[in-house]
Amino acid sequence: MATKHEQILEYIETLPVGEKISVRRIAKDLQVSEGTAYRAIKEAENQRLVSTIERVGTIRIERKKKENIERLTYAEIVNIVDGQVMGGRSGLHKSLNKFVIGAMQLDDMMRYTEAGNLLIVGNRFKAHEYALQAGAAVLVTGGFEASDTVKKLADEYELPVISTSYDTFTVATMINRAIYDQLIKKEILLIEDILIPLENTNFLQDKDTISHYHELNKETTHGGFPVVDDHGKLVGIITSRDVIGHGDAELIEKVMTKDPITVSMQTSVASAGHRMIWEGIDLLPVADDHGKLKGVISRQDVLKAIQTAQRQPQQGETIDDLIMGQMHLQSTDKVVLNFRVTPQMTNAYGSISYGAYSAILIEAATTALKTKNRKDSALENMTVYYLNPVQLDSTVLIKPVILDMSRKSAKVDVEVSFENKIVGKALLTFQLLDR
Questions:
Q1: Which parts of the sequence belong to the CBS domain (predicted)?
Q2: Would you state the pLDDT for residue 318?
């Protein structure tokens, strides 16, 4: 039976897009406490089912598929620009497909403005009116108001008119940054992207006997299975090692490994892979916040996903991408790389930040491992035992040396120098992934 929390989330999913939601209404309709309703609405917000806007409230929005994650709703725009909704509140759930900056003659502006757009413009009342008639929402910059006619049109067409105190250039930058951040999120592989769903997952009940395990093992050839109770809650995991020496009639709950390691749908694949390697496990159950089994992932799934992702073109550039772009292989005999410190990588004092420095060390060490045909590795530990400030625009030399490498792990010493003086030393340990 579903918990109250799950019932509320299911109820919210059934509400029509654009519907206004309140803690009090949810609590009354589903006969739960306001605290329970509040927590469920916050979870719905995390799942991008609803959006909460100051001075407007919480509204049901369309859940976006990952391939459309960079498309923002007008409700999200309000939050990004700290705006006020002057009209058309019933259209806040809609997504925009393009924004247009109104810095041209009115006729030219309208040629570029279409249905589903967001026109960013100052106090040009005619432009507001024409944009709404064309099917576009309006974002009024500079803290200006909209006319009563425009507000009425916005309500009639269900297209938001939003006011913000920021100027047009700042607003365009903020929206661009939000879309860019979404593109980066789109590239990050999550467990939900590779999950073997529950309907395709082989699992056992805690009241089953070991003979059930042997039957499922023979049928699937899998060595391990998650174990659930009568309510579908994950209570353990059972493998071939657990059943050795036990009779077929013995209950699974007596021999299973209780409280197994789990991940959630929003865990990154990289994080799960590192955990599986570190713990030496091949099968990882996926559970929700209430412990209910949602599916499983295998080590093979994780490695395949990581290898596929490495071959994909990047759409959004992270700090790691910037660092890799500045790192160049100078010598392949003994691996030597050179690297230039750019403004994005510095701290408030103009020297390289510790975060950027760490990324440089890791990238240099993994480059050295790649020369030994170890393409897949996961950082286990890093000890920086000498570090001097490196100033902006400096070009440093990085020399990674593999000290020791076995089938499962490797130790790499990395030395960083500037103008023939050592400015950094570190020791990194990696777990090597089976290919």
A1: 195-254, 256-314
A2: 66
